[in-house]
């Protein structure tokens, strides 16, 4: 009577097939999610690295308006004890309706003036309101699309929604890289140059950092 044939080889092959399927699925899903972000960050990585060579001509737009007396009186009564505090909602709406700024941030309050800085990706902006006369002046500076994309790369003045996107994008890139590493491991037996190339990817930046960066 023959002994039963061992099922271990078949089990090993089926386990490898299972993990290959899972890794390929997560690899392509994470690559699809992070594709556009990777392109954006790759392009802006180049433009940031050559920022001094890429000329940008800032465009400055100035504005002025006078606050209605009733709203000015409301603003005066809303002067906070602290030096920094948001504008009252009605005043913030009035500012946003007349100037191309977001008035949701904290303003600097003094006895004579309320100053609201409103930086944004690719530019800056501010609004100043004279508490004696109600005269409001603003200045909006735009440095162009390249500066805008560069600031998105850095997450500069881009708000909470963009910050959340960067977190999700970073996680998708991490999944893409880790699943790619495991796929390299599974296919490395048939591709002898796999680990030398991975080693080069580590050795080259490490050598540059050690030798040239001080």
Automatic annotation (TrEMBL):
InterPro entries linked to this entry: PepSY_TM-like_2 (IPR032307)
Residue ranges spanning the membrane: these are: 161-183, 195-213
Identify the keywords attached in UniProt to this record, alphabetized: Membrane, Transmembrane, Transmembrane helix
Pfam family of the protein (one): PepSY_TM_like_2
Transmembrane keyword on record: yes
- Keyword Metal-binding assigned to the entry: answer is no
**What is the designated name of this protein?**
PepSY-associated TM helix domain-containing protein
């Amino acid at each position: 009577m023959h002994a039963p044939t061992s099922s271990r080889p078949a089990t090993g092959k089926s386990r490898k097939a299972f993990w290959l399927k899972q890794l390929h699925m997560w690899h392509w899903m994470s690559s699809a999610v992070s594709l556009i972000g990777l392109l954006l960050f790759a392009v802006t990585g180049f433009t940031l690295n050559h920022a001094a060579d890429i000329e940008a001509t800032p465009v400055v737009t100035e504005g002025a308006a006078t606050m209605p007396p009733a709203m000015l009186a409301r603003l005066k009564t809303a002067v906070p004890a602290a030096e920094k505090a948001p504008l009252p909602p009605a005043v913030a709406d009035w500012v946003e309706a007349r100037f191309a700024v977001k008035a949701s941030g904290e303003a600097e309050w003094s006895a004579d003036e309320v100053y609201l800085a409103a930086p944004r990706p690719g530019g800056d902006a501010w609004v100043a309101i004279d508490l004696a006369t109600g005269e409001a002046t603003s200045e909006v500076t735009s440095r162009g699309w390249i500066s805008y994309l560069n600031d998105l790369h850095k997450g500069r003045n881009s708000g909470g929604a963009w910050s959340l996107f960067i977190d999700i994008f970073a996680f998708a890139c991490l999944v893409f890289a880790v699943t790619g590493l495991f796929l390299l491991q599974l296919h490395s037996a048939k591709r002898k140059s796999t680990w030398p190339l991975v080693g080069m990817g580590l050795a080259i930046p490490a050598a540059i950092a050690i030798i040239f960066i001080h």
